[in-house]
Structure formats: structure tokens, C-alpha cells
Amino acid sequence: MAIHRGKGLATVEYPTGMNQNGDPSQAWIKVKPDGRVDVFSGTADIGNGSKTIQSQIVAETIGVPYDWVTYDNSNTDSSPMCTGTFASRATFVAGNAVLKAARQVRERILAVASRELEIDPADLEVADGAVSVRGTPAKSMGVDEVAGAATFVHGELLTGDGAHLNPGAAIVDPETGEVDRPPHAAISYAACSAAVEVDDETGDVHVLELTHVYDIGRAMNPTLVEGQIEGGAVMGLGFGVLENCYPYYPSAEHRGGDMSTYHVPTMAELPEIRNVLMENPSSGGPYGAKGIGEMANNAQPAAIANAIHDAVGVWVTEFPITPERVLAALDAKREGRGEPRREGRVVAFDEEMSINRFSSTITWGPDVAPPMCALRPAGGPSPASQDPFTGRLNQ
Amino acid sequence: MKVVGARLPRYDGVGHVTGRTTYVDDVRMPGMLHAAALRSPHHHARITGLDVSAAEAMTGVHAVITHADVPLLVYGHLSGAGIPGDEPLLAKDHVRYRGQPVALVAADTVEAARAACAAIEVGYEELPALFDVRLAFEDDAPVVNDTFGNWYNQYEGNLDVRQIRKGDTEAAFDAADLVVSGVYRTQSQEQAPLETQVCVAVPEPDGRLTVHTCTQAMYFSLGVVCSHLQMPMSEIKMVGGTVGGGFGGKVDTASDSLTALAAQKSGRPVKWRWTREEEMLASGNRGPWHMEIIDAVSRDGWILGRKMLTIHDAGAYGRFSVYGLTKHSFHHTGAYSIPNLHFDGYVVFTNRIPTTAMRGYGVTGLSTAIELHAERVARELGMDPYEFRLKNANRVNDTSPNRIAYEDPSTVEVLQSLASATGAELSDELRTMTRDQRTGDMLPEHLTAQVGSGGGH
Fold first, then answer.
1. What does the pLDDT look like over A45-95, one tens digit per residue?
2. Which residue among B281, B306, B331 closes a domain?
3. For A127, phi and psi rounded to 5 degrees?
């Protein structure tokens, strides 16, 4: 009995924006008389940092300091439509909406400044909260002065609106799945390496290290990107070795209804996490960005499974990879059942192929469908004495 | 550029870490009632009677909502995408999963609301439940879903299966040196946000409703509430945008519409905060995926073709599962270029809680299966795992399963960078490989037909 170390690898790709697109986001911006900028967007911040990212886009695009920007996503009366914060779309799709709105604001600032300075707007630039003449930085006025002039001299409101929509992609041939245009806003790419220790006596898997490389086009705020990567890595770790709503799937018994019976990763399971960010700007994202949020938990489960194989020579293909499953695979290997069936050119790792059963058009695979999951003996009723849904005592 | 790319602190970070951010549960209104749900104790049953009169008569109870109070009981969240609705906001004739809401009570206190729930008389005739997707196709299987049967049957072209067909898969398998098969199963995972689902709905003096929501998608939820209540968007104001964790589980918030109905019926502000048990046992989680992959492979390491069958356990109702499966089908080659494809995917219904979006929706389990399978094939060929992946990695202008050219695939670069970061040794050939369009040795005969001509992403 011993502890074995192994390393495993996985590489993934993931789309930005809703599959098949067609998911609009809109935004509008107004400027106060002192040049401070109010952004109105319908994008919920679910911890992904969209308030921060969109405020950065607005500050950068207009040319004002970040702390001049306020961001209001608080209600549907004042904020325009946003499809929502999911599908890794907030930075790309909603970010493009505020980018377009901010460009309009910048144009209006330049137009008013042009009148004030009596200089062609094409010869003006905005940076750090000031409008200056290209090549003559001494001749300038603050964006606060421009906004004041717009309000009190010209009777104008500095404002801008923007919307972004990647047109919907239709499946034009249901037989082949062919679509009429790209079904995503962009695709991000990543690779992950896992280092694990496997205890061949207990079946316990300890993930020591996760190293990630992500190309998300442009890291708008590297700290927040790393937050997504690290949070995603922990979620992927939970998916890989810990979490299961139905521990005896497909049985519906023994569901965990709280954090003591459903085990998410804790600090005790936290591996060393290393991240590398690559930036190959996308053609359509704001400042070249692509999505990162969702893909961040996709690579770890397979990397961990492959590392377990590297460590102890067994494939565990049902998730999560619990100690029981590791021990069962080690037992199978010891008993000579660990190798795939090799016959001629056929290498069949798992004999439970059911393709023939469900698909008349696929003709490869033995026509058998043994249990999809080994059903364990039912362990009796839930230990809860009170039914959580009715408030009544269990019989 | 100074602001974009900078490591600026979070806009809302100080409030979050000092406990000063206002989340929905922090909203308190004068005269606010508290709601509790009566949920099905059965996995599958016919409802033979529903009597709320005793509950309504209890002290402190201000409203009891059942299916009869919902102006539009069934609203399809993906109706805009042509996918019909199948899930009632409150159970009417059947309960299809344990935890399905049957009634909502609004009362002076949570305790009073729970006591009233316990006083609601529901007659149930238990029915056989289906949990195993393999059995869903049997002739004598219990019928789970009224609208679709036991698997979704309304894809484009009236198909009951999501298909991808590309190239000549049979020829690829005929030509293969190795045919490698494997089965991969991923589990149901709970989103586990710190903030459980919570809503505060407030009837305003002007007749409007204000709905404080924890939704990830305020306008999507506005549309859902307006549909169930049959009200125009001008009559409902969603207030939110600050969410205590969602991870996909708060896109289709179930709490908003019911709380709004309770506020409307009682004429009082109503808060409905789910317990942790409700969040974990009755709200949608990540669904299980059953995936079978068979690859046709050449001895020198090319993946010539792939056949794949996917069965997605959607739980009792469709929600976003068809969307998830379609996305899954579009990405079933992972980061690789495989020119000959034959994919069949099914959304199957079982008597468990309806599954919904979770981070990586439709793809997390898929990536897991693809990358385990890739590792197995590489080992079977005796190839280095990096070499096998780099060789088959998608390149600029390779085409995706649905024939869209990849614009900027970085698989080659991220693998090279990972090798460098972890000290894995790559040959000169692999170290200097680029993602550029295929030429020479990287454009073998079997890939010539599938290289596109741009226009993709």
C-alpha cells in the first residue's frame, strides 16, 4: 500500500455568448455637469465583476479616470435591456453595448470642446479627464469644464446609448446540424495540468496542483480574470472528486440537503493553483476580450482523471471520482479486468455501449446495455425526521 | 490604454467584504409578509384533491396561492427559440418530482406560513417514478412529461434527436487503424450559491409591482414574471443586479413569479427566502450526462472520425435542457478538428428535479469525456499526450461540427504554454507549431475537404 503521484492534462474550448447568439444587450450613459459619468446597464453582477469591467470599458473609451464612473444596474425602469449574466456573455456582449454608448459620449464631448476651443474635433483627443489638442497638449480643457459648458452654456446633455446583438444563427439543416452563421460570439481556449496523489489503500485522491493557461483574448482586469480561474478551478475540483447531488445515481436516495451532507471543496482540499494568461485579441470583443467565466471549471475534471491514470493505471470515467470508485477500479485492475477489450483494430474500454439501442443509424458497438450505473443497495429512508417540503414528520 | 487591463479593485468589493452590500434578503418593508411553499413529498403522483380552506382560515395567513391563481400557468422560458413550455408554475394535476411546488402561503411570519402549508390538504395517488434514463425508452416506462413524453421530440424538422452529421463517417471508420470506444458519465452538481433564492415583491400605490430579485438576468426574469402574471413590462419593476452567487442556478429563478402573485393577492409586501434545503433539494442543478464516444484513429495519430451518443438527464421538465444539448452537440469535437462526425443526442426526462444551467452548461461534462477519451486514445497509440493533442488541435479555418470556420483557435498556443509552465518537454516540431491554417504535413488528405475559407469565429 502506497501513495502514488501522477500528472494529467486536458485542453478545452468554450463559446462566448449564448449558443446560436441572438442575445441582445443595451446600455446608456449620461454625464453630470462636473463631467462624472453615469452608466446604466441591465447586467446583473453575480460576482463575475461585470460592474467593474463595464466601468473600465467606459472610462477607457471616453478617456476619464475610472473613479469618475458610476454604474447602475439596479432596476429595469432606468436600465435598458440586457439578456443577462450567463453564457460567458457579460464582458463581450454587454461590454460591447457600453463600449458603443461610451464612444457616443466621447463624440459629444469632442463636439462641445471643439466649439469651446474653436478647434476641429478631429484634432482633439480625450485622456485622463481632459480634452487636449493633438500635438499641443498645453491647449486643453477638462472634461468637467466641457460638461459644465454643455449644461450651462450650450443647453445640451452629454449622453450616449449603445446596443450589441450577434444575430441569431439558425440550424438550417436539422439532419446535419449545419447553421447559417457563427453560433457564438467568440471561442476561448484553455489547457490545464493536474498533479495528484492517489492512496491505493483508501482510494483517496489529493489534488496537489492545478496549472492553467487561458487565452481569453484580452484580460480586461487580470485580477478578476484570476478570480474566475481560481473559483472555477475549485468548482472543477469539486466536480472532479467530491460533489454529487445523487450519490447513488440514478437512485434518488440520500441526497445532500446542506453543506454537511453535500461536500463542496474547502480550504483543506485547495491545491496550489498557477495561472498563465495569454492574449490573442478577438476580432469582435471590446478591446479584444472574450469570455472566461464558465469555461473555468471545464478542464480540471479530466486533467485530474488523467493524472489518476498516470498515478495508478486505472481509468475512472464516472464522476465524481470518489474513493469508492478508485478502489473499485484498482480491484478490477488487480483482478485482470483493468484493460480494454482489444480485438483486431477494436479497442473497447467500456462495454456498456448503448449506441445501437438508441440510434438506428449508428452501427458500431455490441448491442447490449447493462446498467448505466451500478445501483447500490438502497440504504433506507432519508435520516431527516421532518419532510423539508411539507413540514410533516416522515412516516 | 491604462484602465482596461489594469488590476483595479472590484467596483463593489468593499461592500461585499464588509457586509454592507444590500442583497435582496436585506430588503425589509413595512407590513412585509413572509412566504413558504408546500412542495411535493412524492417523486411522481397524480393530484386527486387540493383543499386550502383550512390554511386560508388560519390566523396570520394573508394569501394562499395555487395553480388556480396563476394567470398563465405554463410559460416556456425558451418559447422565443421555438421550444414549447411544459412546466406549470405550481403543480395542477400531477407532481413530477419531489420538491415540486404545489402552493405558496404568505403570512405574518415564516412560522405561520409553514404551519399553514402543513394544513393544506393534498390528495396524492402515487405513480411509478422513472429515474434511470435507460428505461425511459422502454414501452412500459412511466410517462414523465405531459408535453414531450419521455424525451424531447420537437427539434427542427420534427426530429426527436439532436443530430450532427459531417463528412463520411462510415468511410472514416473503414479506413481506421484503430477504433477506440469509451463511456463517460458525469453527475448532477449543485450551484451552491451563498445566497439562496430570495425575492421581495411589493405592491405599489399606483398598481405596479416592484420585485426585488436575485436573478442573474433581470430582463429575462421580467419577461417571465410578466408572462405568468399576464402584465405588460411597464407594470413590473425588477430591482436587483447584485447577486450573492448564481453559477447558472439563478437564470430561471422560480421565486419571482410566485412571490409577485402572493404580493398581488395579499396586497402586502411579501418576502420568500428559500431554505438551504430547498435550494439544494428543490432548485435546478447541473444535470447528469451520459456520453459514449467511438473514435476512428490512424496509427500515426490522426482522429479520422467520431461517433457519439449523448443522453442528458433533464429531470422532470425541459427548462433549458434542449439549449444545453444543442450547445453540447456544437462542441462535441472539443478543441480538435475531426472531419467526419455522427452525433446523436437526446434530452430525457426523469422524475428528479428539473436540471438547469450551471457554469459550463452543456460542455463541462463533455470536455471531461472528450479529454479522458483523448488521453485513452493517445496512450493506446503509444503517443505523448501533448503530441496527440497538438497534432489534432483545431487550426485557423478548420471547420466546427456545424461547418463554421474557426477564426482564432488557440489550442496550439495554450498547450505549448502549459508544457512550458509545467516543464513538459516538447519536440522542436511541436514547440514551433502554430495555429495558422494547415499546410504541408499538417494538411493530410483526410482534412483537405474540411478546411473552410474564413468568416467564422
1. 999 999 999 999 999 999 999 999 999 999 999 999 999 999 999 999 999
2. B281
3. -155, 140
The reply to whether A335 belongs to the active site is no
For residues B106 and B218, membership in a common domain is answered with yes
Q: Is the ipTM of this complex over 0.95?
A: yes
Residue A372 has pLDDT above 90, yes or no: no
**Domains of chain A as residue ranges with CATH:** 18-164 (3.30.365.10), 186-358 (3.30.365.10)
Q: Residue B265's domain is classified under what CATH number?
A: 3.90.1170.50
Q: Let me know if residue B5 belongs to a domain.
A: no
Looking at the complex, does the CB of residue B72 fall below 8 Å from at least one CB of chain A? no
Q: Which of the residues in chain B have pLDDT under 50?
A: none
- The residue from B281, B311, B329 where one domain ends is B281
Q: How many domains does chain B have?
A: 2
Window 202-241 of B, Cβ < 8 Å to A: 215-220, 222, 233, 236-241
Q: What is the CATH number of the domain that holds B171?
A: 3.30.365.10
Pair (B243, B380) in one structural domain: no
Interchain CB contacts (distance < 8 Å): A and B? 478
In DSSP terms, B33 is beta-bridged to B270
Query: Are both B289 and B356 inside the same structural domain?
Result: yes
Does the distance separating the beta carbons of A362 and B342 come in below 8 Å? yes
Give yes or no: residues B366 and B291 share one domain. Answer: yes
Could you tell me how far CA B203 lies from the centroid of its own chain?
A: 32
Average pLDDT, chain A: 90
What's this model's pTM, rounded to 2 decimal places? 0.95
Task: Please list every residue in chain A whose beta carbon sits closer than 8 Å to the beta carbon of residue B241.
Answer: 42-45, 73-75, 79
In a domain, B141, yes or no: no
- Is residue B273, in this structure, part of any structural domain at all? yes
Buried residues in B115-126 as b, exposed as e (16+ CB within 10 A): bbbebbebebee
- Chain A CB contacts of B352 under 8 Å are 246, 252
Q: Are A298 and A12 in contact (CB under 8 A)?
A: yes
Burial B131-157 (b: 16+ CB within 10 A, else e): bbbbbbbeeebbbbbebbebbbeebbe
| Residue A74 to residue B329, Cβ atoms within 8 A | no
**Do A49 and B98 make contact, defined as CB atoms within 8 angstroms?**
no
Q: Among all chains, which residue has been given the C-alpha cell 437526446?
A: B346
Q: What whole-number distance in Å separates Cα of residue A141 and Cα of residue A105? A: 16
* A47 CB-near residues (< 8 Å, 6+ apart): B243, B244, B245, B246
Residues 78-137 of A with CB under 8 A from B: 79, 81-87, 128
B350 part of contact set with chain A, CB < 8 Å: yes
Region of B167 on the Ramachandran plot (φ > 0 left; ψ -120 to 50 alpha; else beta): left
- The verdict on a CB contact (< 8 Å) between A221 and B276 is no
Range of the domain at B264: 23-126+191-281
**Min Cα separation A90/chain B (Å):** 11
Dist. CA B304–CA B290, nearest whole Å: 23
